[in-house]
Every structure is written in C-alpha cells, then in structure tokens.
Specification:
Elements: H1 3-11, E1 18-23, H2 27-38, E2 42-47, H3 50-59, E3 64-68, H4 76-87, E4 92-97, H5 102-110, E5 115-118, H6 123-154, H7 164-176, E6 183-186, H8 193-202, E7 211-215, H9 221-229, H10 246-249, E8 254-258, H11 265-277, E9 279-280, E10 289-290, E11 294-299, H12 303-308, H13 314-320, E12 323-326, H14 337-351, E13 358-359, H15 361-369, H16 375-389, E14 394-395, H17 402-405, E15 430-432, E16 451-453, E17 458-462, E18 469-473, H18 492-506, H19 511-518, H20 522-538
Helix pairs in contact: 3-4, 14-16, 18-19, 19-20
Amino acid sequence: MSKSSEENAALTTAEEPLEVLVVDDEPAHAEVVAAALEKINAVCVVVHSQREALDAIKRRAFDVVVTDLMLETNDAGLEVLRAAKQERPETEVVLMTAFNGVETAVEAMLEGAFNYLQKPLDLKRLRSIVQKAGDATRLRRVNRQLKERLDEKFGFDGVVGGSPAMLKTLERLKRIAPTDATVLILGETGTGKELFAQALHQNSPRKNKPFVALNCAALSEHLLESELFGHVKGAFTDATSDRVGKFEYANGGTIFLDEVGDMSPSTQVKLLRVLENREITPVGSNKTIKVNVRLVSATNRKLEEAVEKGFFRADLYHRLKVVTLKLPSLKERAGDVPILLDHFMKIFAKKYGKSIKGVTQAARRKLFLYDWPGNVRELRNVAESVVVVDFDGLIDVDDLPDEILDATPNSTAPLALPTPERTLEPPTLDVSFADAPTVGVSETLDASVVSATVAGSASVLPSSSPGSSVAVPNPAPLDSARSLKSLVGVSLDELERVFILETLRSTGGNREETAKILGLGERTLYRRLKEFAQTDAAK
C-alpha cells in the first residue's frame, strides 16, 4: 500500500476527530508528532511540561495522551500516565522515550500504558498505535454509556409513577435491592412484575451478571425442567446434545421465575433443592453443579390457598417469600394514569414518527373512569392504539378503543381521581418540578412552580412571582365510595375546593394540565388557589 493510500485509509477509520494530548519538552519534536497524528484525523493539544499536562487532563477529556517519559524528571511521563488514568480511566496513554529500558517499559505497562514507543519514532507505527488506542477509548466509552442507559431503563427511574401507593412500593424496593434475599413479587396480571424484578437486579451487587427471566406457565413440565436445570445428551428423545439450563447460565446473577404458582409438584421439589443446597442436577445426569443465583419469583395466584389445597408445597412457599413485594393495581394508583399515559404516548409518538400535542378533557375523563382490568400493560396498549389511529395530533374520544368507550362506570366511581388512604403513611417526597413528569405531551412546566410535598399537611403551589409559593392545605380526602346522592348537603364551594385540589394532586402539581381538565383558565385556577390559602389563613 502506498503512503497516500495508507493515509486515506486511516482518515476513514474514525468519523469524529480523535482528541489527543501531546506532551514533550522538545517543542520541535512535539510539533512533528502532532503533525503526524493530524493525518489520521486527530485534533492535538501540545504542551511541554508535566504541570501543563496535568492541567490539560483536568480540563478536558482526551481520547489518547502521547507523552515523553522524561520531562523535568526521569519519571515525569509516568506521573502524567498515572494522573490521566486517575482523572479519566477510559483514556489510553502512549509513552515515548529515547532510552530502551525494559524495566521502565514493564513499569509503564503495569501502570496502564497502552503502548511504548522508542525514539526516533516511526511515524507510521505512531499513527497506527494512536489510532488503535483511540478506538479502544471510544469502545470503552460507548460501553459505559450503554450501561448507563440500561441502568436508566431498568433501574428505579424505569418505574413510572408518583402516587403514594407507588412511592411506598419503590421505597420497599430500594431497601430490598442491595441484599441477596429471595423475593416473591405479588400483583395482578399487567402490573409490571418483570420490570420490578429487573429493577431489583439492576440495583443489586449482581447487576454486572446475567438477568434471566422465564415464564413457568408457558412450558410443559419436562420442557420447564430442561430450561431450568439443563439436560445431557440422550436424556430424552430430542436431546441430541448437552444443554445449559437457566440456573447455570445465570450463575452469579439473578433468575426471575414468573407465574411460579403454575409449577408442577415434581419441579417444585427440584426448585426447593436449588434453594436449600444451591446446586442443580441436569435432566438425565447424576452430576450436581453448584450455582450462586438470586431467585426472584412472581405470581398473580394466591399461593396460601394453593398450599392449603395441596397444589403448592408449603416449604417451597416459605422459601420463596423470604421477602414479599406487593405491586398495586392501576385502580389503586389511579393518580398515576395521566403520568403513565403521557410516558407511553411519548414513546409511541417517537416510534411512529407522530407529533401528539395532548389529550382532550373528554378523552381524559373516559380514561380516568375506566377500571383498567389489564393494569399498566393494558394502558400501554391503549396508549399505542390512540397514537396509531390519531390523525390530527390531539387525542380525542374518537381515538379511544371501543372497550373504553363502551365501559359504564359503576355508581361508586370517584368524582375525581382517588386519593390513597392516609393510613398507608407513604414516605414524604420533595419533588422538584424541573424533573417531574407532566401530563401534556408537548407541555413545558411553569418556571414559577418550585416544589410540592406528596404526603404531609400542605402542598406548595405557585404564586404570582417566580421563586415564591403559596401553601394550600390538602383537602379532606374525597371518599371514593361516595355516590352522587350522598353528596347532597355539601356546599358547592366545598365541592369546588375538593375538585380543584384533588385534580391538582392527580396531575402531580401541573397547573396548566389541571386547568385543562377542569375547564378553567390558568389565571382563574391560580386565583382560586390563592383564595383557598387566604380563607385557611383567616380561620
């Protein structure tokens, strides 16, 4: 390959310029190095002392540092290497020296140097090594960013909701996650049990090991045992080779068994052995294999009743429920419906390339009064459906599925989004509205909104000037079982107060969205809130 061909090929190896720091106390030599690296699409910063190098490393993230070993002192280059690795661990360092010292080269490699070049430099080799070092840095950086995105997706931030019932569940989840305890997740179908299992794993010491999920109800008894424990060749008719089971594959990590209540009695015995002895026996084998796996299981069945009827082993049940995590149904966290709806619509609007401006008041009312028997899973499917069928960017009643349009709310349906009972005593959470999710897809939050207390005696609401706030006491909770008839005798002023404050709470303090739901102007809503505060202050 000719010199020009080599240089052109090098130029195409990276779309973005490499950020390179060149450290050499010989200015002329430093400029030669920088000029050579510019031919592989590198942007070079040149310095001539250890102090300048350390300052540059603190100020800027470099892909590669190319430094002379001997600067002011014989080991100044090693100090630059150590500082670079301490400040930016993903940065690769290439050392240059005029002396061929084996001991120094070994020491440099032990300190984390990518490579070691002897002067006079072979510029072709220099470019090749720096290019490989830059590729290594970028690959490491991409892996770290991917890991951060996975943490965000499967960590606690992936669980959407701000209702007291959900906050209480999340608080329990955070206490359980760092431990190695076996967890049984209870909840109705569609409440997100696998998402919570992933959050447990992702926030545990096992997060860098495999997370393996398996639905016990989806497989026959023999297939389930093979999936869980593996099998050896010839164990049954179709066993043409050895197979590693989920427990062995997940060694060191977490295994999630969904619908564990549907497991056959014989498989229950084998699972109990795994929990007691931490070892498995593949189907058709006499050899046991030690495993170290955290077990998280889930079911929508009442296992206590299954134990009483003899369908589920009592000893296994007690081993599974070392810690239990009960997930609230969507009916129990109805205040999260607008937040979840907004969250899912954003996802599907991006997926289908649509611009969704918001949801009409009539459509929201239908969604609020619906029972959501399929819980969050059903809400997610409805959100996808309305985004797909919408044509004008505004979700209205005509975009809703038939099952929601045809649903008839019973006489005990709440007049406003229900407030969870105070006896739950959920933890107080100071929510910064700069980070809180809003209901309208295309809305932005009012800058004057400072904070709100989810639980406690008062909510802090926006005042007329940025940075100040008006404390408005929470209303007495509206009994979700109260019918229209039972409200006879309640003053209209009190009803208005309850409606406004309960709706404001259900939208997470979003004043603009609250005004839309109630059919009020935002200024009118603010005046009413201020009047409530003044009335309470005068009492």
